[in-house]
Prior knowledge:
Blueprint: E1 5-8, E2 10-13, E3 18-23, H1 26-31, E4 34-39, E5 46-51, E6 58-60, E7 68-73, E8 78-83, E9 92-98, E10 113-114, E11 118-123
Parallel strand pairs: 2-11
Antiparallel strand pairs: 1-3, 3-8, 4-5, 4-9, 5-6, 7-8, 9-10, 9-11
Amino acid sequence: QGPLVQSxxxxxxxxxSLGLDCAASRYTFMSFCMAWFRQTPGNEREVVASISPGSGxxxxxxxxxxxFTISRDSANYxxxxxxxxxxxxxxxxxxxxxxxxxxxxxxxHAYRDWGQGTxxxxxx
Length: 124
């Protein structure tokens, strides 16, 4: 199904915004749930948001609900994560993931393909 290629991220001050993009193959984009996870040193990856193909149903973790938005870019077979009102607690390595099936899951173990990771750093 091809690799997932991430772009975006970087450093911003608290209250600022950043965006992340994850480019996938057409097949992956059209067929599979895609999600964003994040990981801090010593901790397991945790789901941030997910989006299903077709209906585009979304899920957000409580920690980002109302601040982050996940969306699908059908023209580029990519998934975008818009992150607004960022706080230092959002500092982490962010990973894009594709599940291998249409329904989404909050478990990292349910995802088959992973992007290379992108650092997001929010300073106070």
